[in-house]
């Protein structure tokens, strides 16, 4: 007696398939298809064997982030996102009083630069430290978090003084 589970795991025509299947590979295995630097393949199928890839290219590839590093980057990225919101709120709060000191176009350019600064810093550190040690990336992100504090929001709050 066959159950429905057995029927679900079979295909029509499975019974016609021969049981003995030739499992010999037609190509050389991947382990034998590469030679160390300076070696040359000689003999049958030697034209299919290629030299090993440059190992320094594999060392230059960026490594995946570890769990603590991923958490650190995520937390600092969230801080940068809050900084962006802080610069938007702080810039809008000070707009009325700042227009007495500087022309409107200069103030708008400064506010946009301040709003974009956290994202640009994060992107610059991320791209420039791809092949550096992870502590260099964390140090760059922490330095940006210290330099880019939204002081207008910190000093006046969300509603101004």
Q: Can I get a quick summary?
A:
This protein has 7 helices and 2 strands. The protein has about 160 residues and is mostly helical.
Structure, explained:
By secondary structure, the protein is an all-alpha fold. The protein has a domain at 70-156. It has seven helices and two strands, in the order αββαααααα. A two-stranded parallel sheet has the order 1-2. α3 (67-93) packs antiparallel against α5, α3 (67-93) packs parallel to α6 and α5 (104-128) runs antiparallel to α6 (134-147). The model has no long low-confidence stretch (mean pLDDT 79).
Salient structural properties:
161 residues, mainly alpha, two-stranded parallel ribbon, 2 strands, 2% strand
Uncertain stretches: none
Give the overall shape, derived from the CA principal axes: elongated
Q: What does the largest sheet look like?
A: 2 strands, parallel
Our Rg estimate from Cα atoms comes to 31 Å
| Strand/helix succession | HEEHHHHHH
Q: Which structural class matches the secondary elements?
A: mainly alpha
Per DSSP, what share of the residues sits in E-state strands of 2 or more residues?
under 5%
Proportion of helical residues: 40-55%
| Arrangement of strands in the largest sheet | 1-2
Termini gap: 83 Å
Count of helix runs:
7
Mean pLDDT: 79
Beta-strand segment tally:
2
């Amino acid at each position: 007696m066959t159950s429905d589970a057995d029927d679900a795991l079979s295909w029509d025509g499975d019974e016609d398939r021969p049981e003995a299947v030739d499992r010999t590979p037609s190509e050389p295995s991947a382990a034998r298809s590469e030679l160390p630097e300076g070696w040359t393949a000689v003999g049958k199928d030697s034209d299919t064997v290629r030299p090993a890839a440059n190992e320094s290219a594999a060392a230059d590839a960026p490594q995946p982030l570890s769990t603590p590093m991923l958490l650190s980057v995520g937390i600092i990225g969230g801080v940068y996102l809050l900084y962006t919101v802080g610069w938007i709120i702080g810039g809008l709060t000070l707009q009325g009083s700042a227009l007495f000191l500087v022309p409107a176009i200069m103030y708008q350019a400064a506010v946009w630069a301040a709003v974009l600064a956290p994202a640009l810093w994060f992107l610059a550190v991320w791209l420039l430290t791809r092949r550096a040690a992870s502590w260099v990336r964390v140090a760059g992100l922490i330095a940006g978090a210290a330099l880019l504090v939204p002081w207008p929001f910190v000093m006046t709050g969300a509603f101004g003084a």
